[in-house]
Design brief:
815 residues; alpha+beta; ten-stranded antiparallel sheet; six-stranded antiparallel sheet; binds alpha-D-glucopyranose
Length: 815
């Protein structure tokens, strides 16, 4: 069953029932001010850091779930009946309910008793505020007298403290109300220079800022006392829980529409101009007022919204394709690219599954996310790379995470995830191939943010490789440290204490645990660095890296090959993991993907053998599971991976992030049907019909789909913030459709399903536009017969870089 449909033309997903299996969310904002918003207006907002600068409150794991949001209530003054046009929180029946999640905006509309309401929510470019534009229309044949109430609950900034420190926080809340604008200024009197404001375009009949007065004792958001009685209390919060609610009275003639604009924003004053008059405790509002006035204006709102739409058209315009498959088209052209931008902005911080208080930016995660958005915002990718690299440790190792607010490494989690450094090389390589901007390699970048420690970025990459080479185990394979890509394979941890962190506990000395996955990653990264070294004229160095890679490949073939697939690791005691001889966890997906992508086994048939093993042992109709057989109990020597019940997360769940590695590997061995089939199994659009089983949003990838060992096989979880976004984008655009940026141009090397007759694509690359037409006689999956560029047949399939502004026509015939 479906809960809505795609509107491809408008790049929207239209939810047509409010009671989706889970909240189906969207993101507002793309620079500094962000929010999440569900299809029933649930969610919250923050400035830069979802933990430290949370504007509004949201209660995770609440019942009913998804409560706390950007709410409006309509009240009929005659009958006294009131309802939420977004369904939550009153959940009264609505006609024509529709939520349109678009690129950086959501609009939620409905009708009840002849009153239509539609609210558009978005964050204008360059601003630290969000707009709610409500349009209320009277479809009755008589005049309607209505009240419109807004409602948000302020968070006292630090979201963690806000949920735990009640003895203090019940006494600190402060607001000001001036000219109908509600200012939330908790802690402004002391060390904060920032406040939130909530304004309304219409004259107010009243307001409330004390939550418990607005709601009434023992009531919830579904029947606030102020709304029920049709009159605000004009409450001013002192302590307890500050909220913001405006009351606007509307009289609408039949057919009449009224627009009411609300603006919720964040403002920072200069530290020496906090108060006005100086010496008082009153917020200086001189600087913020013009901004508030500007965005309460309907014309400004409309033009800001049009700019937002243009911004996204331009970003998404970087790559547009037209293939025989509508699911592939809409994911590549719209939703997958959009999800990549969201993972870029959010990393793994704020979603319906990530509470915004847990993690900072992952070193590995952010480098991988980059692979998915570098073509859309190369300048921001550059900045991100330099931020990440500045946290790298002098050893070449890396903090596993860093804080977006301070841009510093997170000591709580620390380092020792031995795959982390290699991802920096892949991230930088992707940036260089996209832009050709070699100057980034000469940027002076610190280690561990220590001033004075700077070296060129290029040296960071050299140290990344050395980090692995200096940490090899008895089989000449890389030591795994705390974990590799799989944060949950903790081979040096041996935890028996409940609640202890699997990631940071290392309680045994002298282990020799090694990772075949890191070996594959190293081979891949060494080749990338060799290509970069060549471009800097260091051919000797490039040779050394290739020799290191060859040696590592030999070690993989000697000790990482199990006969029918690549092994996963060696444990603390030097015993093999991911081998036919193991009782459980005999075969893992990660080394099959990564070793083949690195080229290991491509020339001796091992890659195909490994992929056949994946198909036979790991593939399911809902995607490829992470390993088999699932761990039936907790293994102290394996760590968190075996802590999950079978079929969930890393214990044989369909961990979607890894599936594209297999798609790429299939493309590398030329099996287009297999590659595309795997692509479709987890493609959310292709799973739309399964919404009751899948449960997550049909427009974005989840991190995980329950595997075949789970009772809820096929059920997705943890949507949005996952490396799945970037890797699927890479798999489909670069390996299936085969349009790949390389240092010297665009490589066109598709690997398609047999039945396809071709496809078309438009790709902007270094300022020029390439119109690519691929035609393919049925029956072939891969191989190029000829490439014609602007009418000239070229040698091979690398289309060289054209000058910015050029329009390049590329005709590719496969065969
Ligand atoms: C999560 C983490 C990612 C890790 C993966 C597997 O998605 O964000 O860093 O690689 O889990 O454990
Ligand atoms: C949890 C998750 C895993 C993630 C890790 C990050 O263990 O299962 O996916 O990578 O946390 O620390």
């Amino acid at each position: 069953m479906r809960y809505g449909h795609f509107d491809d033309e408008r790049r929207e997903y239209v939810v047509t029932r409010p009671d989706t299996p889970l909240p189906w969310i969207n993101y507002l904002g793309s620079e500094a001010y962000f929010g999440i918003i569900s299809n029933t207006a649930g969610g919250y907002s923050f400035y830069r850091d979802a933990r430290l600068r949370r504007l509004t409150r949201y209660r995770y794991n609440n019942v009913p779930f998804d409560l706390g949001g950007r709410y409006l209530y309509l009240r009929d003054s005659e009958s006294g009946e009131f309802w939420s046009p977004s369904w939550q929180p009153t959940r009264l029946e609505l006609e024509n309910y529709e939520c349109r999640h678009g690129m950086g905006y959501s609009s939620i509309g409905s009708r009840r008793n002849g009153i239509e309401a539609e609210t558009l929510y978005f964050v204008p470019g360059g601003e630290n505020l969000e707009i709610w534009r409500a349009r209320v229309t009277n479809r009755r044949d008589s005049e309607a007298k209505l009240s419109l109430f807004s409602a948000i609950e302020f968070c006292l900034w630090d979201a963690w403290d806000d949920q735990t420190n009640f003895q203090r926080n019940f006494s600190t809340g402060q607001v000001e109300v001036e000219d109908g604008v509600i200012y939330h200024k908790t802690e402004y009197r002391e060390r904060r220079d920032h406040f939130a404001y909530f304004a309304c375009s219409e004259p107010l009949a009243g307001f409330d800022t004390q939550r418990d007065t607005f709601l009434g004792a023992y009531r919830s958001w579904d029947n606030p006392e102020a709304v029920e009685r049709g009159e605000s209390f004009d409450s001013v919060a002192h302590g307890w829980a500050p909220c913001g609610s405006h009351h606007v009275e509307l009289t609408l003639a039949p057919g009449e529409t009224k627009e009411v604009v609300f603006v919720l924003g964040y403002w920072e004053n200069p530290a020496d101009a906090k108060f006005d008059p100086e010496g008082s405790q009153t917020i200086n509002k001189k600087l913020v007022k013009p901004v508030i006035e500007r965005f309460l204006n309907s014309g400004e709102v409309e033009s800001a919204f049009q700019s937002l739409r243009e911004y996204w058209s331009e970003l998404l315009g970087t790559l547009q394709v037209s293939t025989p498959d509508e699911h592939a088209d809409r994911m590549v052209n719209v939703w997958n690219a959009y999800q990549c931008m969201v993972t870029f902005n959010m990393s793994r911080s704020a979603s319906f599954y990530e509470s915004g208080i847990g993690r900072g930016m992952g070193f590995r995660d952010s480098n991988q996310d980059l692979l998915g958005f570098v073509h859309m915002v190369p300048e921001r990718a550059r900045e991100r790379i330099l931020d990440i690299a500045a946290t790298q440790l002098p050893s070449g190792g890396a903090y596993h995470q860093y804080q977006p607010m301070t841009k510093r490494g997170n000591n709580d989690v620390g380092s020792g995830f031995n795959d982390d450094p290699a991802w920096l090389i892949l991230g930088v390589a992707a940036y260089l191939k996209e832009t050709g901007d070699l100057s980034i390699l000469d940027e002076e970048v610190t280690y561990d943010n220590e001033p004075g420690s700077e070296s060129p970025l290029y040296e960071h990459l050299q140290r990344s490789l050395r980090y692995t080479l200096h940490r090899l185990g008895p089989h000449e394979l890389p030591l795994i440290g705390r974990a590799d890509w799989n944060d949950c394979l903790n081979l040096n941890c041996f935890s028996t204490t409940p609640g202890e962190s699997f990631q940071t506990t290392e309680n045994k000395e002298g282990g020799v645990a090694e990772s075949v996955f890191i070996a594959g990653l190293f081979v891949l990264a060494a080749e990338e660095l060799a290509q970069i070294a060549e471009r800097r004229g260091h051919t000797d160095e490039a040779e050394t890296y290739r020799a290191d890679a060859a040696k590592m490949s030999e070690a993989v073939l000697a000790h990482g090959w199990d006969g029918e697939w690549f092994r996963r690791a060696y444990d603390y005691f030097g015993d093999v993991i991911g081998s036919a001889g193991n009782e459980e966890g005999q075969i893992f997906i990660e080394p099959q993907g990564m070793c083949i992508i690195a080229g290991i086994g491509l020339d001796d048939g091992k890659a195909v053998t490994a992929l056949d093993s994946v198909a036979a042992r790991l593939a399911t109709e809902h995607g490829i599971v992470l390993q088999q057989p699932a761990f039936s109990h907790y293994y102290v020597n394996l760590g968190e991976i075996s802590s999950y019940p079978p079929g969930y997360k890393e214990n044989a769940g369909i961990f979607c992030h890894t599936n594209p590695w297999i798609m790429i590997a299939e493309a590398l061995v030329g099996r287009g049907d297999e590659a595309f089939d795997y692509y479709q199994r987890i493609n959310p659009s292709a799973r739309e019909e399964l919404s009751d089983l899948h449960r997550c949003e049909p427009y974005v990838y989840p991190q995980m789909i329950a595997g075949k060992d789970a009772p809820s096989f096929g059920e997705a979880k943890n949507s949005w913030l996952s490396g799945t976004a970037a890797w699927n984008f890479v798999a489909v655009s670069q390996w299936i459709l085969g349009i790949r940026a390389e240092h010297d141009g665009l490589r066109i090397d598709p690997c398609l399903p047999k039945s396809w007759e071709g496809f078309e694509a438009t790709r902007s690359f270094r300022g020029a536009t390439y119109k690519i037409n691929v035609s393919k006689p049925k029956g072939v999956c891969r191989g190029i017969a000829q490439v014609v560029v602007n009418g000239q047949k070229i040698k091979g399939n690398l289309v060289e870089t054209h000058p910015a502004g050029a329009a390049v026509v590329v005709e590719v015939t496969m065969g």
